[in-house]
Fold each of these.
Amino acid sequence: MNDCSDRVDSNRKFAMAGPTWTPSLVEERLAEAAAVLRRLPAQKRQGYFNTWPDYLPEFSDLVGQAPRQTSLPPPSPSAISRMEETLPWTIGLDPIDGRIAWMRAHNAQWKAICWKVGLQRSAANERWFYALCIIAMRLNRQPVPKNRSRRYVIERMRDVFAADKRGWHPGTDSTATALLSK
């Protein structure tokens, strides 16, 4: 009887601990937050309204007009909650690293990112991956090395997840895979 309750308690502890955050999971979560931000309705000025009734156009009025653009539905409340949880993750990062992380989450091309932050692609890519590693370390409540290089932190994250039984599979970005394989 006691063994069974011990197993149940250990299962509860594992369930409460949550997932082990990897840079690829952080990347996916930042991309989801960026997508939710794009899908939120535009902010409108308060106090302005229209008293005219809505005009229902007839078919003859619509002939020759360009079709309306379709838009995605608004995000679900759970997606908005996850986005709100994700927004403060870049606080405390170097401003350039945080900017690169958010630009990548918004699917900006590397050329545009490099132009805006004034770095070469390899340096921008390393800073992006370093930011993902730092966020993952904070979410896993691991100490972040202060006086170490970016390369050291990236290598440490790779070693930690290589030793993990589940392994670490970086996101679809081949540059993240290239950094880890070095």
Amino acid sequence: MARAATTSDAFNAVAEPRRREILNFIALQERPVGEIVDSLGMEQPSVSKHLRVLLEVGLVNVRRDGRRMLYRTNAEAIRPLHEWTATFARYWRHQLSRVKERAERRSEMSKDIETNFNPRRTDDYDGNKN
């Protein structure tokens, strides 16, 4: 089966870890390419390529400020990704709750065993000294 183009949709675009890193970095504040390059330690051509992909699928907005291009994450376009992953978040919260409950039950069982455990055998202390 042929692999889908990274520009076909948001899911394919964010499959690349460096693009997710860029999205995180520009989520709260718009930033120029040079700042993204410096902060993330990536090469400028690579950042530009990733930004172009993110722009094509609508995950990034760009604004010109004089000669600079400022990029910012388009939060509204990320909503479908968030909604889709929320399904799995609910699943994992449920699973983690079950793990926690099981661990608490085992902990209680261990405490009960320790409380009822007497390491001395009664016949060892019957007063006979051999």
Amino acid sequence: MKGMTETSPVSYQTTLQSPLRKRIETVGTILPHTKAKIVKPGTTEILPIGQRGELCVAGYLLQKGISVYHVDLTHRILGERSENKGSDDP
């Protein structure tokens, strides 16, 4: 399964124009052309807002390729990947 090190290197960001509260209390806003969801760990079940879970990110920012150790789990969590780009379905 991929970790945040495969997001090259960020998926969320704040700016100097962001309100101070947003800059110090959040991870920011998801980057353009990127998708994310929070799932129950070990599943693909999307959790309601405010619940803790595992962050799944998809888009151009992911490294090409998947884990050779957990291919089935990676495909189940992230979905099938295109040969030419990162996953389009978090």
